[in-house]
Amino acid sequence: MALTLGRKPGEKIYIIDAQGREIEIEVVKRDEKLSNFTQLRINAPQEFKIVRGEIYNGNNS
């Protein structure tokens, strides 16, 4: 499943799993000069692993 959203700085998205644990994703900055650059803040419980896409190899390592 995929969802595409537009968000402005300060707006948040929440992902909640079946156990009620929350991952909060907030847009903290968007550089208007670099239209393809956005900074995100991700707040998640420690048991969640957060990995950037360019280094993720798909096997949870």
UniProtKB/TrEMBL annotation:
Instruction: State one molecular function term (GO).
Output: RNA binding
Highest classification ranks of the organism: Bacteria, Bacillati, Bacillota, Bacilli, Bacillales
One example of a Gene Ontology biological process annotation: mRNA catabolic process
Q: Which residue spans traverse the membrane?
A: none
Query: InterPro entries of this UniProt entry?
Result: CsrA (IPR003751), CsrA_sf (IPR036107)
Source species = Cerasibacillus terrae
Protein name, as recorded: Carbon storage regulator
